[in-house]
């Protein structure tokens, strides 16, 4: 007869242990207030013991190839904020051993006073049930969670439906490129490169946030290049446009009609590409007064991409480039060079704040976590900040174990 894990509100069986043995685990520790029972430890929302060590038990049988690309990747001796059982479960799951990870947490919660009221251990177990499609077990544990912590439990999410919605979301294939330094005739090579990239099928995501100064001749070249891109039907999305707007506005306000007219026309073009009709019409009046000629008539942008990525519908809107999140693709990250790594590096190239959505990722193996650690270390050395959100509890725990939390802010899930 199969052994049973008994909950206050339900019963289910789970095969446990590396040897395939079935181990009875009885959740008999919930007591009414005022009755004798184990004292509930004071824990943070993250949970865990301040003196936690990385698990070295037989269940955590991961390997690192000392002759390969992971020779420099080590598990830090610094505190991860996790209990030993939570660390072991995270490593087991990273190695594809979900059943063993579930058993490790079930044992720990049932047998350890430290883990019994440890929020992260419960969140990890709930996420494991969710990831394995074990709804009955999830619902039973959620009811016990309410009793244990006197708060609402996370709710079941249909991951298959979430995956379908993720596939239906449009993903940009635009090539990222940044103009930098002074826009001048001496620096025209980068404008030529920009125009070539705009001919690529997916279009161009042009970052204007790194421009530091403008000269009349450079404005002429940039304006004419933008005109050719738009006339050729190129898909152009602008980011960091407010930076160039300020530089051009400063030139227009300080020099007026002494500026080359194209400086004004370039500013008008930026407004037009972002759908900023009010600003366009206001500047058009000043342009007509300054040069006694009619400005180009307003035309709505051919694509809303630029308007949505830049300071659209009002100059008061902050650049969205920094806050724009990359939905990391796929469901797993495996090996020393996972394809998602290039996505992340390319996304980070145009940003100082790198916002990564890991909602679609179900599992990251230990080797891929090491690759992410190296990449994030390089990005932070380059002055970038990294935020990770949407990662499940098993991935969060793994990231803490390998030290990714030293380089990135790992945001808690909303339900937690």
Q: Overview of this structure, please?
A:
The protein contains 15 helices and 12 strands. By secondary structure, it is α/β, with parallel strands linked by helices. It folds into 3 domains: 1-37 and 80-156, Tetratricopeptide repeat domain (Serine Threonine Protein Phosphatase 5, Tetratricopeptide repeat), CATH 1.25.40; 175-309, 2-Layer Sandwich (Transcription Regulator spoIIAA), CATH 3.30.750.24; 329-410, 2-Layer Sandwich (Transcription Regulator spoIIAA). Strand 5 (204-214), helix 8 and strand 6 form a beta-alpha-beta unit. Helix 1 packs antiparallel against helix 2 and helix 8 (216-231) crosses helix 10 (261-273). The two termini are 37 Å apart.
Note the topology:
Elements: E1 5-6, E2 11-12, E3 25-26, H1 84-94, H2 98-111, H3 113-116, H4 119-131, H5 135-149, H6 159-168, E4 175-183, H7 188-197, E5 204-214, H8 216-231, E6 236-239, H9 241-255, H10 261-273, H11 277-291, H12 304-309, E7 325-327, E8 332-333, H13 340-349, E9 353-357, E10 363-364, H14 366-381, E11 385-389, H15 393-402, E12 409-410
Parallel strand pairs: 1-3, 4-5, 5-6, 7-9, 8-10, 9-11, 11-12
Antiparallel strand pairs: 1-2
Helix pairs in contact: 1-2, 1-15, 2-4, 4-5, 7-8, 8-10, 9-10, 10-11
């Amino acid at each position: 007869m199969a052994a049973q894990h008994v909950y206050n509100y339900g019963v289910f069986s789970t095969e446990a242990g590396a040897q395939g043995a079935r181990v009875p685990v009885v959740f008999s520790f919930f007591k009414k207030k005022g009755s004798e029972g184990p004292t509930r430890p004071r824990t943070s929302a993250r949970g865990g013991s301040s003196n936690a060590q990385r698990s070295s038990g037989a269940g955590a049988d991961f390997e690192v190839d000392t002759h390969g690309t992971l020779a420099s990747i080590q598990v830090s001796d610094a505190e991860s904020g996790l209990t030993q059982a939570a660390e072991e479960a995270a490593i087991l799951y990273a190695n594809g051993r979900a059943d063993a990870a579930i058993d490790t947490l079930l044992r720990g919660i049932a047998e350890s006073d430290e883990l019994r009221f440890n929020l992260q251990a419960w969140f990890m177990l709930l996420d494991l049930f969710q990831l394995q499609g074990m709804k009955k077990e999830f619902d039973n544990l959620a009811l016990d969670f309410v009793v244990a912590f006197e708060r609402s439990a996370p709710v079941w999410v249909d991951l298959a439906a979430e995956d379908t919605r993720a596939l239906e979301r449009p993903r940009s294939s635009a090539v990222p490129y940044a103009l930098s330094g002074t826009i001048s005739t001496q620096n025209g090579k980068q404008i030529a490169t920009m125009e070539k990239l705009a001919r690529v099928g997916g279009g161009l995501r042009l970052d204007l946030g790194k421009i530091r100064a403008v000269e009349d001749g450079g404005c002429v070249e940039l304006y004419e290049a933008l005109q050719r891109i738009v006339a050729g039907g190129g898909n152009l999305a602008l980011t960091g446009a407010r930076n160039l707007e300020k530089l051009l506005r400063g030139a227009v306000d300080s020099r007026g009609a002494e500026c080359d007219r194209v400086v004004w026309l370039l500013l008008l073009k930026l407004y037009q590409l972002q759908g900023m009709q009010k600003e366009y019409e206001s500047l058009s009046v000043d342009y007509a007064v300054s040069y006694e000629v009619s400005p180009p008539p307003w035309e709505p942008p051919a694509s809303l991409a630029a308007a949505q990525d830049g300071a659209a519908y009002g100059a008061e809107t902050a650049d969205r480039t920094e806050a724009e999140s990359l939905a990391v693709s796929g469901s797993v990250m495996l090996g020393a060079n996972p394809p998602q790594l290039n996505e992340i590096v390319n996304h980070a190239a145009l940003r100082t704040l790198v916002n990564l959505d890991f909602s679609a990722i179900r599992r990251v193996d230990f080797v891929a976590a090491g690759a992410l650690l190296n990449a994030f270390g390089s990005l932070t050395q380059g002055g970038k900040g990294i935020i990770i959100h949407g990662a499940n509890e098993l991935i969060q725990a793994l990231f803490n174990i390998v030290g990714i939390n030293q380089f990135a802010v790992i945001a808690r899930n909303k339900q937690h």
